[in-house]
Amino acid sequence: LFRQQERINSQREEIERQRKMLAKRKPPAMGQTPPASTEQKQRKNKTNGAENETCAVAVIYCAEDIIISVFLNCVFLTRFKDHPTLNDRYLLLHLLGRGGFSEVYKAFDLTEQRYVAVKIHQHACREYRIHKELDHPRIVKLYDYFSLDTDSFCTVLEYCEGNDLDFYLKQHKLMSEKEARSIIMQIVNALKYLNEIKPPIIHYDLKPGNILLVNGTACGEIKITDFGLSKIMDDDSYNSVDGMELTSQGAGTYWYLPPECFVVGKEPPKISNKVDVWSVGVIFYQCLYGRKPFGHNQSQQDILQENTILKATEVQFPPKPVVTPEAKAFIRRCLAYRKEDRIDVQQLACDPYLLPHIRKSVSTSSPAGAAIASTSGSSTNSSSN
């Protein structure tokens, strides 16, 4: 944005310079013409040619002045003349992506003078009610929300220049353990925050497509987005023993959901923040091995029909690439089949594999190190990293 503003300022300065040069060429006849004297009238015929020349210069001057003025006023608007402006504030630039019930556009906030991501939802959206209260460096900020009509709704989000983790993995297939661990530490830092606020929140849709790589690389900062399926663990719906009922069974991305989400019975299954822990294990595995641990080549329909996740009692590790035993043990803790045996988010944040004293090479000055260092503090401290 700063570079674009510099280009804008440079072009405006060039236009102003041309305008000043034009002012110096302004013909004297451009001022108000005084009444002609008798002597002047007598010389009129003699000077007719000169006056015509002066007139031509004046016309050229006026034309150039109009052109420069119009260009000065319209520069950088012509490029976007066919783009709609939402809520008299957000200029849509281009489509970033679309899901089943939404589209996301890169846009420009004309009030705050910054790029944003505008998400247009086809139906009334509950996402903003959850997201608007969140404030953490590893979570995309929600700036604004408003209705377009009775059937569509907009949320305005922080814009990240890079791509998501899903795009990165499609391009590179996998990454080093150090890079993957850095990403997981930052995700866990955000999950810790989500479970320390009141009421706590289960994201429920953690997957590479919802993990944004801020600078497009695997070694930088990440931000979690898309709270459309998240669950609020309030006192009315959640208890520490049984968890909460899964009222939206069938929603979500099946490769990243744990077995308890697929249990069918007379009553809805019970879930807790351990759903997100399972998702972390799947994402970490995929980053390391370039494939999902369960149902890798299956469609969501096949996963349901073949009960793939319900049969995922044990995770298997391929011989290549080489991964440390500590990383494999961490994945096993995340992918414990029975939720009673699986660690929760609080235990995940304190897991030995993620603690800085286990791997001295991780600096607390890096995004990953800062994420881990904050796991021993309060949610307030976490949000300050």
TrEMBL record:
Disordered as annotated region, ranges: 1-48
Top-level division of the source organism's lineage: Eukaryota
Organism expressing this protein natively: Oxylabes madagascariensis
Listed cofactors: Mg(2+)
Pfam families the UniProt entry points to: Pkinase
Name assigned to this protein: non-specific serine/threonine protein kinase
E.C. number(s) listed in UniProt: 2.7.11.1
Reaction it catalyzes: L-threonyl-[protein] + ATP = O-phospho-L-threonyl-[protein] + ADP + H(+); L-seryl-[protein] + ATP = O-phospho-L-seryl-[protein] + ADP + H(+)
Record key words, sorted: ATP-binding, Coiled coil, Kinase, Nucleotide-binding, Nucleus, Serine/threonine-protein kinase, Transferase
Listed GO MF terms: ATP binding; protein serine/threonine kinase activity
PROSITE patterns associated with the record: PROTEIN_KINASE_ATP, PROTEIN_KINASE_DOM, PROTEIN_KINASE_ST
Biological-process GO terms, alphabetical: chromosome segregation; intracellular signal transduction
Enzyme class, broadest EC rank: transferase
Residue ranges, compositional bias (Basic and acidic residues): 1-19
Top-level taxonomy: Eukaryota, Metazoa, Chordata, Craniata, Vertebrata
Domain Protein kinase: 90-354
InterPro entries: Kinase-like_dom_sf, Prot_kinase_dom, Protein_kinase_ATP_BS, Ser/Thr_kinase_AS
Keyword Plastid: no
